[in-house]
Amino acid sequence: MPRVADQSQSQIEQFINEVIILSQVNHRNVVKLLGCCLETKVPFLVYEFITNGTLYDHIHTACQRASSITWENRLRIAAETATALSYLHSAASTPIIHRDVKTANILLDVNYVAKVSDFGSSRLIAIDETQPEAERNLAMYFILAMKEDRLLEIVDEQMMNEARVDMLKQVAILAKRCLEVKGDERPSMKEVTMELEGLRMIEKHPWVNDIKDSEETQHLLRDQLLDAYGDETSMSNSTVYDRMTNHHISPFNGGR
């Protein structure tokens, strides 16, 4: 039950208008806003309760918990998060920009399904100036590691043991594209979702790279994206399939 910092009357009115918009958001990967309380000096937002903590907790705290977030789960959580952001950006009645996407704002339910949270107040609250400089520069650290071809030095050891190196590199390249300074050089979240779902499919069915014209392959990817978007996606099967096959990841040769 987060609260919003003290604000002027005009900001309170803006807050109320945005709460109305946010209360209409209905997506399986977005924490549901149940209501708000304006009877106190500081307004409160009331969200559905998600039982399994944050992605940050599972990755950075107890080692025994981290083991449950396997590479397969992390790739799925990334795709689910991208799906939620794509919905907020384009499918919601009014576009909503999160502005504070981080592992601490991604909740996990009992089945480790991602639930994006704190997407409303981020439009009203300034950037946390108390955040350590090192944390704010994490993106630059990642970009520098990519530039110097040191990606594998910064990857979680557990992921090095579970994931194929070529898959790790593909995800890293996609993440780097998302960090481009110019907006028109960054992929949309719908494109990010599509590419992540394509990578998930390749992870599950490595043979898709070798079957360019397989009807079965196209159906598998179509079903994967329909599961992510429902009936809202406007992408054609051929567009999705072409983008997926462009990954062209080398067949697994037994090493990680």
TrEMBL record:
Q: Name one Pfam family in it.
A: PK_Tyr_Ser-Thr
Catalysed transformations (reactions): L-threonyl-[protein] + ATP = O-phospho-L-threonyl-[protein] + ADP + H(+); L-seryl-[protein] + ATP = O-phospho-L-seryl-[protein] + ADP + H(+)
**Top-level taxon of origin:** Eukaryota
Q: Which BP terms does GO give this entry?
A: cell surface receptor signaling pathway
Question: What PROSITE patterns does the database record attribute to this sequence?
Answer: PROTEIN_KINASE_DOM, PROTEIN_KINASE_ST
Against PANTHER family, the record matches this protein to: OS02G0633066 PROTEIN, WALL-ASSOCIATED RECEPTOR KINASE-LIKE 21
Protein name, UniProt field: Protein kinase domain-containing protein
